[in-house]
Write a structure and sequence with these properties.
This protein is mostly beta strands and about 150 residues long. The chain contains two helices and eleven strands; from the N terminus they run E-H-E-E-H-E-E-E-E-E-E-E-E.
């Protein structure tokens, strides 16, 4: 069994932003879409979708940014396990990441609690926060968060 984890959203976002001010970023955000480049039937129900959340409703995520420069992310994991000789994907325990952030225009720099720093471009439009992350064989995956 091995773990597939959608990487920390703010570690690999890429898109454009017109007005990414820190005041607009502050608050709580709920993951509403995880879009793959091509539709897949990950849950093997016979219906392919580009949105991982349609395939795995148990997959959840949230982000919060505070005025004091702190952030927290809670993101489900996906695990491949073997059941009756077949490999299936199931939701695993969430990963919680915390640290500090700084937003300059649409460039978001984060430093997680392990001291790992990342600078990325985000797309922030009032109540929607978007970004893309590379995710192995799936290519770039778009994560969409809505303000809570």
């Amino acid at each position: 069994m091995y773990l597939l984890v959608l990487t920390l959203f703010i570690a690999g976002c890429s898109s454009d932003d017109d007005n990414g001010s820190e005041n607009n970023l502050i608050g709580a955000w709920i993951l509403t879409k995880v879009n793959l480049p091509l539709p897949l039937d990950l849950n093997e129900d016979g219906i392919a979708s580009t949105n991982v959340l349609s395939e795995f409703p148990c997959f959840q995520g949230s982000l919060s940014f505070q005025a004091n420069g702190q952030y927290a992310q809670n993101l489900s994991t996906l695990m491949e396990i073997e059941v009756d000789g077949e490999t299936v994907i199931v939701c695993g325990n969430p990963i919680i990441t915390t640290g500090t952030y700084e937003l300059n225009g649409d460039e978001l720099t984060t430093v997680d609690s392990n001291g790992i720093s990342n600078t990325t471009t985000i797309n922030l439009n009032q109540n929607t926060l978007r970004g893309s992350i590379p995710f192995g064989e799936f290519g770039n995956v778009e994560l969409v968060y809505e303000r809570e």
